[in-house]
C-alpha cells in the first residue's frame, strides 16, 4: 500500500524532532532493516540497520540540531525536505543547508535516504 502524504510528512517531523531530543532509536525506527543512507550524495552508502544506527549515533553524539526550512515535497514513494543542521566543529558552530530525500517501501519504512549538501552549504554561525 502506498505511503500517504500525511505519513511521509510525519516521518520528516519525527526525524527532525528526534535529532533535537538526541533519540537515535526513534530515528533508526523510521528505517527498513535493509535501508541505505547516502550522506552526502557521492559518498559510500551506509547499508543496513546497524550501519544506520552507527551513523546516527555519531551524528546525534556531535550535538547536531536540525531545523526544517520549508515545506516537505511529496511525490510518488518519496519526500524531499530542506533543513538546516546546526553543528559544532571543534568549538566553532556552523550551519549546513541540506535537502534530504526519503524513499519509502510498501511497509511505510524509509528504504533510502539521500542528503544533498557540500562544502559550499556550510556557513559559520
TrEMBL record:
The lineage of its organism: Bacteria, Pseudomonadati, Pseudomonadota, Alphaproteobacteria, Sphingomonadales. It comes from the Bacteria. Pfam families: SnoaL_2. It comes from Parasphingorhabdus halotolerans. InterPro entries: NTF2-like_dom_sf, SnoaL-like. Residues 12-113 form the SnoaL-like domain. This is SnoaL-like domain-containing protein.
